[in-house]
Design goal:
The chain is an alpha/beta fold. Helix content is about 45%, strand content about 20%. It contains 12 helices and 10 strands. It has helices at about 5-15, 20, 35-50, 65-70, 85-90, 125-135, 145-155, 160-165, 175-180, 190-195, 225-235, 240-250; strands at about 25-30, 55, 80, 100-115, 140, 165-170, 185-190, 200-205, 215-220, 250-254. Strands 1, 2, 3, 4, 5, 6, 7, 8, 9 and 10 form a 10-stranded mixed sheet that branches. The longest helix has 18 residues, at about 35-50. It is elongated, with a radius of gyration of 23 Å.
Length: about 250
């Protein structure tokens, strides 16, 4: 075989697609904070097994309005892991493919204190109420899903007026950070967020009678450049490895 023939064969083989790498895709993801926790823990395994690359478009502290603003502004994405009302609206606006809508996870609301601080009793509704009244300062969100719920809850418990002067309600989910820095004695927000925050200790979930869940769903963008890779990601993130991560971080598959 001549050198020219060998060189030609080598050139042809070098030009052929080589396995998963030839099909590798960049998957642009709008994921709110709790879904980010799961993606951050198992995303590397997904990337290694598929060759795809996950690019998260939101910061850890970004709230739902930021995702909505950027999607409305026309920013391209492949998959969204957001709240059900957002999925409803995006489907209505034909920005999410309705058939791809997938239940993802749910998270209860929890209570946390600064690491090393004494933990109040919150096992009953009355105990939780006393813990809030006895705390020098508390923090919970202004918006999101848990914020409005907790505002209505303290109204129902009849302690809204007493709590108002000592309550911090940040616009972004830095409740755990406020507790870690000593700026709030008690923080109340999604339990998974508290578990992921350094410098705090989770006391526990709200009592069952007053518990509320933050729900998350996934969907593929109608304008996705990589819809098949996006479907692969959703399938992986609802599979056994991701479910184990959810449970270890205070979340549940939904």
């Amino acid at each position: 075989m001549s050198r020219i023939t060998i060189a030609l064969i080598a050139f042809i083989f070098a030009s052929l697609p080589m396995g998963p790498a030839a099909e590798a895709a960049e998957i642009k993801v709008f994921a709110l904070q709790s879904p980010q926790i799961v993606i951050n823990e198992v995303g590397a395994d997904f990337e290694r097994s598929t060759g795809h690359k996950i690019t998260q478009l939101l910061r850890r502290t970004d709230m739902p309005p930021e995702a909505t603003r950027r999607i409305d502004a026309g920013e391209t994405f492949d998959v969204a892991f957001v709240l059900p009302p957002m999925i409803d609206q995006l489907i209505k606006e034909e920005k999410i493919v309705a058939a791809t809508r997938t239940h993802f996870l749910r998270i209860g609301i929890g209570v946390a204190v600064r690491a090393g601080a004494s933990k109040p009793d919150i096992l009953s509704v009355e105990a939780f109420k006393r813990a809030l009244l006895n705390a020098k300062s508390i923090a919970y969100l202004e918006g999101g899903t848990s914020g409005p719920y907790l505002a209505s809850l303290v109204e129902r418990l009849g302690i809204a007026a007493e709590l108002l002067p000592k309550t911090k309600r940040p616009e972004t989910d830095i409740v755990g950070d406020l507790v870690a820095r000593g700026e709030a004695e008690i923080g109340v927000t999604a339990i998974s967020t508290l578990m992921a925050t350094r410098g705090v200790e989770v006391v526990g979930p709200l009592p069952p009678e007053i518990q509320s869940y933050v729900l998350f769903e996934a969907g593929i963008s109608a304008n996705s450049i990589e819809p098949d890779a996006g479907r692969d990601l959703i399938k992986f993130l609802t599979g056994p490895a991701a479910v184990r991560v959810m449970k270890s971080n205070g979340m549940e598959p939904w």
